[in-house]
């Protein structure tokens, strides 16, 4: 099951390498019956920080997964399965979805949220924030890179206990305390962990990146802090909420802008 999930993750690299094969002249990493995976295509599917965090072994594993995925796709074609109408429709829809998400992400990346917008949101929704600070008792597993974190998350979802995962995979001394961070407050040096926990349900697993490491976390208990929450405590959460709310607005604005330029849209 883990290998299948990794192959699905590599579908993005497969898609990019297929689209760029005519103009990409960077070094070759692998080739399967004429289909080539280049270094630029491989790197383009990762963010800069994520790429730098990948170990040589992890990069090699991704390349091998691309080879496996390519072999399976080529065999699908050789058996004629790619000519089936249902598969063609699914491929077409998936391709459109990837392109549409890229356009929406590019628009969201340009979204500027001012200090006034942040504070206005805080005032309007202050009932959500002006209450005793919730503290989360957080446990974490520190890992070297995102792929390792995703693999541990899969093992946890498959039934491995959190304690066992900490012992086997955590790369920090905190594993000797079961990965427990104790109760974490929003204004503490560990506020990024608090923000992530604030999006989870009790004992639900989450993944986040902090500095040069990746973590799988959960919280097991909550309690009220001694002081009321303030604007600074919730700045990151407010920004996250505004972006989520603006996604639909960005989507609708894009559609209106594009449709205004198109004359050849018909419904039958």
- Radius of gyration based on Cα positions: 23 Å
**Subunit organisation of the chains:** single chain
Distance between the termini: 43 Å
Parts with pLDDT < 50 across at least 5 consecutive residues: 1-21
Helix content: 40-55%
Assign the CATH class of the domain at 132-228.
Alpha Beta
Number of helical runs? Answer: 12
Structural class category: alpha+beta
Order of helices and strands: HHEEHHHHHHEHHEHEEH
The CATH topology of the domain at 132-228 is given as: Chitinase A, domain 3
Protein architecture, described:
This protein has 268 residues and is of the alpha+beta class. Among the domains are: 2-79, no CATH class; 132-228, Roll (Chitinase A, domain 3). The chain has helices at 2-9, 11-19, 39-44, 48-53, 56-78, 85-109, 115-124, 126-129, 146-157, 162-169, 191-197, 235-261; strands spanning 28-32, 35-38, 132-143, 180-184, 206-210, 213-228. A four-stranded antiparallel sheet has the order 4-3-6-5. Helix 1 (2-9) crosses helix 5. The longest helix is centred in the last third of the chain and has 27 residues, at 235-261. The chain is globular, with a radius of gyration of 23 Å.
């Amino acid at each position: 099951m883990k290998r299948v999930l990794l192959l699905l993750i590599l579908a993005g690299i497969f898609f990019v390498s297929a689209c760029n094969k005519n103009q990409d002249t960077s070094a070759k990493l692998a080739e399967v019956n004429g289909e080539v995976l280049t270094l630029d295509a491989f790197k383009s599917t990762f963010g800069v920080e994520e790429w730098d965090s990948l170990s040589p072994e992890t990069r090699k594993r991704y390349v091998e997964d691309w080879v496996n995925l390519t072999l399976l796709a080529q065999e699908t074609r050789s058996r004629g399965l790619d000519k089936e109408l249902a598969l063609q429709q699914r491929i077409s829809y998936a391709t459109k979805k990837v392109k549409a998400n890229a356009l929406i992400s590019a628009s969201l990346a340009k979204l500027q949220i001012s200090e006034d917008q942040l504070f206005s949101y805080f005032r309007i929704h202050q009932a959500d924030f002006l209450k005793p600070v919730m503290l989360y008792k957080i446990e974490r597993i520190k890992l070297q890179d995102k792929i390792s974190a995703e693999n541990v998350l899969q093992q946890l979802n498959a039934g491995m206990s959190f304690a066992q995962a900490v012992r086997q995979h955590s790369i920090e001394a905190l594993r000797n305390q079961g990965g427990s961070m104790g109760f974490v407050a929003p204004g503490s040096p560990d506020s990024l962990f608090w923000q992530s926990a604030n999006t989870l349900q009790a004992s639900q697993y989450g993944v986040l990146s902090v500095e040069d490491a990746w973590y799988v976390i959960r919280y097991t208990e909550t309690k009220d802090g001694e002081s009321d929450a303030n604007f600074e405590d919730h700045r990151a959460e407010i920004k996250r909420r505004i972006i989520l709310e603006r996604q639909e607005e960005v989507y609708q604005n894009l559609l209106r802008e594009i449709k205004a330029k198109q004359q050849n849209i018909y419904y039958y």
